[in-house]
Amino acid sequence: MPRSQRNQKVSLTKTSKKGRELKQGIVSEVRKCVDEYPSVYVFSFVNLRSKLLKEVRLDFREDSRFFMGKNKVMILALGKSEQDEYQDNLRQVSKRLKGQVGLLFTRRPAEEVKTYFKALAVADHAPPGFVHDETIPLPTGSLGDWPVSMMEQFRKLGVVVEVEEGVLVNRKAINMCTAGEPISPEGAKLLALYDKKIATFTMSLLCRWSEGEFEALAEGTDDAMVTE
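Structure for Large ribosomal subunit protein uL10-like insertion domain-containing protein, as requested:
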């Protein structure tokens, strides 16, 4: 029988009253989900954007709950050791709460959850700072079927552009991104203008806990960015 520690007090004395109340609320919500949902997963993510996460949340809205962004507080709620874990083996879940990760509480069957995340891969525009493995140039010549009114916008993005016979023309070849180097804000905007989706959004399951039983699904997490 899984052990419950519902009445265990959590110390948050190092935070302000407002912050303490917020953190205590998260602790309470996480523990409530432990009690209400039969399974909890830790997931990592790569190239996460708000709109993409929203779509995943919508897919799981009927039977699941997500928590992200407060690793230390979630660890506090679940417990770090055998002595303070909220339920048996939740300390194993806490060990995976490092870096860019989150919690998924769900009533869905395990195989259905695993299949969903294994297939999840969405091409998207790269944010500034993203490192691509290929160089994508913006050569000299016509910039494409853009209105002349776009000239100033292109210039602000570092393009040496002129109008020639009613067409925007690039006078100096540049790279929108260079292999192995972080993409600049200007480069990211240029790639988006040309609809170059070079980033792939993925979410990977690291472990599963269900009624006191723990299952490791993967090791480690990936670096990622969260952007609007």
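The longest strand covers residues 199-210.
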